[in-house]
Amino acid sequence: MAKTWTTPPSQSLRAGEGFVLADVDTSSTPGFAGDKAYAQQALESGRETLGELQEKLFAQSRSGGSTGNVLLVLQAMDTAGKGGIVRHVVGAVDPQGVAHHAFKAPTPDELAHDFLWRVRRELPGPGMIGVFDRSHYEDVLIGKVRRLAPPEDIEQRYADIVAFEDELVANGTTLVKVMLHISSDEQKERLADRLDRPDKHWKYNPGDLEERLVWNDYQDAYETAIRRTSTETAPWFVVPADRKWYARIAVQKLLTDALASRGLDWPVAQFDVELEKTKLATS
Known about the structure:
- The protein is globular, with a radius of gyration of 20 Å.
- With 283 residues, the protein is an alpha/beta fold.
- The chain has helices spanning 9-12, 36-62, 82-88, 108-111, 117-120, 138-145, 151-170, 184-196, 207-212, 215-229, 244-260, 273-281; strands at residues 69-76, 98-102, 129-133, 173-181, 236-240.
- The chain has a 5-stranded parallel sheet with strand order 2-3-1-4-5, with helices on both faces.
- The protein has one domain (9-265): P-loop containing nucleotide triphosphate hydrolases (Rossmann fold), CATH 3.40.50.
């Protein structure tokens, strides 16, 4: 296959200093050298590489090697395609090496603790790829838009999140933070599709219309959160998501590169391989 990326997503999609969310064209395909059909081929061919890297990560942790892990954080407005990323990208790897958690509204027990308490409980173990479908960022997104906490608490949470993520990275976690950025018009089309199809009714939530009424407030909340928490050790990647095929191939590449950056290899056997071959042959 010809060169897939002219610029890797880790560069073209990274939110840098002075990031402006409105400057991101939600229908664009930054750095990708191909169309939808080509992206589908690239996604399929990339599954093997991603799967092998995940298996190496898992094998190392089970053989007394690295205790590190990878955590994919997915944030987005509804219908942006988080589920599709989980199915078509993360779903390509061995499920025994994946820890997936979808954060819902906090329970009374969770509300009785610090907002990061429930997040710490779901962190991936050694050798795992963790996936947060929504995350601790809900506490500075919906928390800010719906005024679920005083402004000073929201302000403190940005600093708490940065300190928390610095701690994770220092302890061996590779963080991949992704915002799937969809336009209001595209979301409207996807919601209409769910209403038109009986097999999609279960995915429709009337509350999504209430969230559309404060769309601009959410855009502001996302921009602020990304600006305040995109750091050198835990940067944000803002992925245009109007084209599902682009979002999937971009996240696959981000995840693959994150795993590759760990310098993974197969663990060395802790026994005499040739001796075991001889013993097996005579058994």
